[in-house]
Amino acid sequence: MNEYQYLKLPRYARMEIDRLRADVLHLETQLYSVTTRVQHEAGVRLLVDPYPESPERALPWGTHLRWAFSIRDYIEVHAEKDAALVVRASDRVIVEPRSSNAFHVDLRG
Q1: Which residues pair with 67 in a beta bridge?
Q2: What does the alpha-carbon distance between residue 91 and residue 82 come to, in Å, rounded to a whole number?
């Protein structure tokens, strides 16, 4: 929406758009703050992406991620160049298909 279209809207609609824009800015700021704090404190690379269609925010191939749920339980994921994911865990890994393009990974020991 350009400025001309915005100014043609009724006042209550412009107020609602302004409120929603402020809410989005506030939430994006909070998300950035939490992401930065977690990366700094835990020494990990954390990507929280509310816009997954953005190619500049994608993890590069060769990225290795590790989620530790406790001292003994963890899941590691490695993105390979041939668009494959290698998943390892501290114990048995259960992969449950959810649909043709989604699955659920669970630790069951």
Answers
A1: 75
A2: 26
Q: What pLDDT is recorded for position 13?
A: 95
Instruction: List all residues 6 or more positions away from 4 whose beta carbon is below 8 Å from its beta carbon.
Output: none
6-26 pLDDT tens trace: 999 999 999 999 999 998 888
Q: Is the pTM of this model over 0.70?
A: no
Q: Tens of pLDDT along 23-55?
A: 888 887 877 776 666 666 655 555 555 555 555
Are 39 and 45 in contact by the 8 Å Cβ rule? The answer is yes
Is 47 within 8 Å of 36 (Cβ atoms)?
Answer: no
Q: Which two tokens stand for residue 24?
A: 């989005």
Contacts of residue 96, defined as CB under 8 A and 6 or more positions apart, other chains included, come to: 103, 104, 106
Residues 6+ apart with CB under 8 A from 87: 75, 76, 77, 93, 95, 105
Lookup result for tokens 């259960």:
94
How many CB atoms are closer than 10 A to CB 52? 9
User: 3-state class of 69 per DSSP?
Assistant: coil
